[in-house]
Design goal:
The structure is a homodimer. In chain A, strands 12-11-13-14-15-16 form a six-stranded mixed β-sheet, sandwiched between helices. Chain A has a five-stranded mixed β-sheet with strand order 1-6-7-4-5, with helices on one face. The relative contact order of chain A is 0.13. Chain A has helices spanning about 55-65, 95-100, 120-125, 135-150, 150-155, 180-190, 215-220, 235-245, and strands at about 5, 10-20, 25-30, 35-40, 40-50, 75-80, 85-90, 105, 115, 135, 160-165, 170-175, 205, 225-230, 245-250, 260, 265. With about 290 residues, the first copy, chain A, is α/β, with parallel strands linked by helices. In chain A, helix 1 packs across helix 6 (about 180-190) and helix 7 (about 215-220) runs parallel beside helix 8 (about 235-245). Strand 8 (about 105) of chain A pairs parallel with strand 5 (about 40-50) of chain B.
């Protein structure tokens, strides 16, 4: 198990803004910090992050970028916020780190994310557990648990949240200014747990962000067969989900949801009681961005 | 002026989803396409995009990444959706392209955006026109114009929009699955216009996305002194805005808004008529993510 620091830093700060009446008003806004990752003293990347769990973020980043394949390869992650640096010490170095970080995919996330290497090629090999299912009642509990969660979003807005669930039991909730940072942080945390507990087939991944190709790929890489979002889905996200066997649920609110792919993984045990009116124009409108 | 193709491609597709009643439902979702950019036959980057204006996107990407400093250096941009490629032909090559694309900043946008080189160093040198102002009534018109705009967001959701305004006159509205792609597309389009018309000081930049550091930097690089968002702002976005002289307005709706920085650029000519109640807990809640 690698040695990790537990660097702490405030997640929000209070600022004075001028409102529409020309009057000053105090509000909280989320932090956004530059964290430069060094692997064996070589600069790898600078992540802009809220700063809640920098060590897990760095681990998850290395894992999801496929730069490190086993946790045993990492001796330590040392985060020092005074200099905005995360120093990763490996046991044997990273093979072909130059080649692995050479090609760039600037993804859509919401920004231009960056995936090193040929993640899309890996998609070809991914196949999620066939039998995993989720009950609609559990899905409703997942959405409700997120809704009730105390969060930086509630106090300061402008962050994305992700939740890892076992069935409808929340295991970890992470927020970050970047939604890919949030999912990387979850991947890092999962790596640190007992592998027997962290098999993917009983897990559900919740994200406030849209289900783009990169988000779907990251969920599938964690071996999680069901992903839930309150947002919608893109065409390439859908294509990847269909291919790897991922059940993607979007527009999920307390009662409503749209299952974009592999609906056979959902058990409809809690359909709303009132039959729905005819599908109208307004059903085509998104609930959230 | 470079030769550009005008590659067209559908921006949405209709898919069948399963709703909360277990019934099939047809909805539209936005496209998301991989566009690999080659500069003088050398692979540079793959952008995941909606595909509305790929040639402007590529121009703006090269401009905002500071890989090309003058439009005269570009002979042509040829987009071929059949192979998902944008071929850029330069007149004299790009100096030090290896060095310029070597260091990575994975930003938060909403995802992990990527900025090559040391954009932050450039921020030190940016200073926006001192005298530029915007009237609150114009600000309200900007928000209203965006609200009434016909859009992929309205039909399919899951995209970000950006608008370039002269005062409150909309010059260009762009949507993309990635908000950084949307702003890059605007930067590319601006490059192609008469430079005398494209000075920044009378412009306003609107984005549906949050005002993170990268978004603020890109606005400032375009020389635009006022940026408006319906979303909020991060701490580093605010720090950069304060430094470069950018008036950042967030949480902008028909009547409401919060000015995060440089309120001296706003002329309060249209304050809402009803004095506001005491600031309560709920004012701290964000309107949108």
């Amino acid at each position: 198990m690698p040695h990790l620091t537990a660097a702490q830093v405030p997640l929000t700060c209070d600022v004075t803004v001028i409102n529409e009446f020309g009057q000053p008003q105090r509000i909280a806004i989320p932090a956004e910090r530059a964290l430069t990752v060094y692997v064996d003293k070589r600069e790898l990347v600078t992540l802009m992050t809220l700063g809640g769990h920098p060590e897990w973020l760095v681990l998850g980043y290395l894992r999801n970028q496929r730069l490190v394949t086993s946790l045993d390869d990492i001796e330590s992650v040392t985060v020092d916020w005074d200099v905005g640096a995360a120093a990763v010490k490996t046991r044997h170095g990273i093979d072909e780190i130059e080649a692995k970080t050479a090609s760039k995919v600037v993804t859509t996330g919401c920004g231009q994310g960056s995936m090193f290497g040929s993640l899309m090629a890996e998609v070809e090999r991914l196949q999620l557990p066939v039998k995993a299912t989720l009950r609609q009642s559990q899905l409703q509990n997942v959405v409700n648990t997120i809704r009730l969660q105390d969060s930086t979003y509630k106090s300061a807005g402008s962050v994305h949240g992700c939740g890892l669930f076992r069935g409808d039991e929340l295991l970890l909730f992470v927020e970050d200014v970047g939604r890919h940072n949030a999912v990387d942080t979850i991947a890092g945390w999962m790596w640190l747990q007992d592998p027997a507990q962290m098999r993917g087939d009983d897990k559900v991944f919740y994200t406030t962000g849209r289900l783009t190709s990169e988000m779907v790929i990251k969920s599938a890489q964690m071996g999680i067969p069901v992903v839930v979002s309150r947002s919608g889905m893109t065409q390439m996200g859908l294509a990847v989900a269909q291919q790897v066997g991922l059940c993607a649920v979007g527009r999920a609110t307390h009662r409503r949801m749209l299952c974009f792919s592999h609906p056979e993984r959902l058990v409809f045990d809690a359909m709303p009681p009132v039959p729905r009116r005819e599908v109208s124009e307004s059903d085509m409108q998104p609930a959230v961005a």
